[in-house]
Amino acid sequence: MDFITKVGSADTCKADCVAVGVYADGELTPAAQRIDARSGGAVRAAIRSGDMTGKRGSVLLLRALPGVAAPRVLLVGLGKAAELHEKAYAEAVRAAVKGAGSGTRDLALAATDWAVRGRDTRWQAQLLALAAREVVYRFDELKSKRDSTDTFPTRILLPAPDAAAQRAAALGLSEGNAIANGVDLAKRLGNLPGNVCTPRYLGEQARVLARTFKLGVEVLDERQIEKLGMGSFLSVARGSEEPPRLIVLKYQGGGKSAAPYVLVGKGITFDSGGISIKPAANMDEMKFDMCGAAAVFGTLRALAELKAKINVVGIVPACENLPSGRANKPGDIVKSMSGQTIEILNTDAEGRLILCDALTYAQRFKPAAVIDIATLTGACVVALGNVNSGLFATDEKLAEDLLRCGRAMLDPAWRLPLDDDYQDDLKSNFADMANIGSPGNAGAVIAACFLARFTKAYPWAHLDIAGTAWRRGAAKGATGRPVPLLTQFLLERAASR
Ligand code: BES
Ligand code: MN
Ligand code: ZN
Prior knowledge:
Blueprint: E1 2-7, E2 17-22, H1 30-38, H2 42-48, E3 59-63, E4 72-77, H3 86-99, E5 106-109, H4 121-136, E6 155-160, H5 163-191, H6 199-213, E7 216-220, H7 222-227, H8 231-237, E8 245-252, E9 261-265, E10 267-271, H9 291-305, E11 311-321, E12 332-335, E13 341-344, H10 351-362, E14 369-374, H11 378-384, E15 389-393, H12 396-408, E16 413-415, E17 433-434, H13 443-452, E18 460-464, E19 470-471, E20 477-478, H14 483-495
Helix pairs in contact: 3-4, 4-5, 5-9, 8-10, 9-14, 10-13, 12-14
The structure holds ligand BES, manganese (II) ion (MN) and zinc ion (ZN).
Zinc ion binds next to strand 10.
């Protein structure tokens, strides 16, 4: 899907379809008013007839209006003008892309005059590209017949009122499209099954990404991981025949000496729970347990495509968590790269066991900040559901910026606490700490507190995406979150230096 912007007005576009907004109170957006005037009142007539109520997300396709160059005019319901907030805007864009008519290749979308309070043209363009790309995404590469996508527009034109707006729109469209490319990469890796998307496969994909975008890449094997002293990570990996990988990707868009931002992504390519095995129901969804890793890949892809002026290192510890004669057993004690010892009371709390060593490894980059992204706890899903990712941070500015960027990109997070008092729950009689606290007791917080013990050397944030990385049920599939949040955050940091 291509995105372009031109100075001009939607009503004179020669696109296959022109989409204009209509509010629920009968008020017309400027482009809808102009279409109405040109066509001798066709828009108001459609409203009067009751066929278009302006209800948010509703559409009405009109054909061959007199005085209008485009063969189709799509009326898009925006809801009440006062309630056109960020989510309603994106919903209207998706409705327009879906409703443009199967004959439409070129769609002119008059979205710059859908005013969202507090948001500028660049934001409108960014979210337009993201929302439109969301509609056309398909994962059908493992089906013998591809699902058809040809009923959607292939090009979207965003008309801009003047040259300044056009520049802002062009910037926003390219950002939104690059972020969508990152989201699609994260979705694809997430959706691939555990027998395809193995730790080795992730390593190969890292090399492909590095080759395409000239990133630095290192893929460490079991022997090299052992040399680093990552006893905690390796203890999880050893339960499987599939060998682990430690993947390091480096994007150098900033100054040589500028401290990098480090993204650490949980890369469990399948989580059976290990000896503390999970129930059978929905266990297939544990192929998504590498969505943190996928988000790191996707974010790096977006930043590299945009040539963002910032240095970012991605670290992905990747392995499977399976039961076997070599797997961790409850009560086993392992030594992490940091030197701290861990009593493994539950082998299903494996994410923290691989992340703690990656977080120690991150120190060597002298990071400006480290953000880890992990499908870490079922408890986070209990706390926040599928709307907000869980955010934990040891740095206030980092937390605030991540929260704000998440809201802007409709990829929200909600902050949860990291008080020292929670640490008592990780006490072990036999090692420096246990890998779980008391069952049923603030599980998402305890997991974050475990990680915090390995992050003293730098400002740190942790995103628990257990509830937001994929959808269940009929729409089962990876969401690509939190690529938009992370990319927007890093674009902002790149611009603020
Ligand atoms: N990958 C899971 C977390 C998870 C579970 C994400 C369900 C999404 C849906 C993680 O490795 C895990 O199993 N965590 C345990 C921790 C517990 C043993 C302390 C959990 O949440 O049950
Ligand atoms: Mn687990
Ligand atoms: Zn897991």
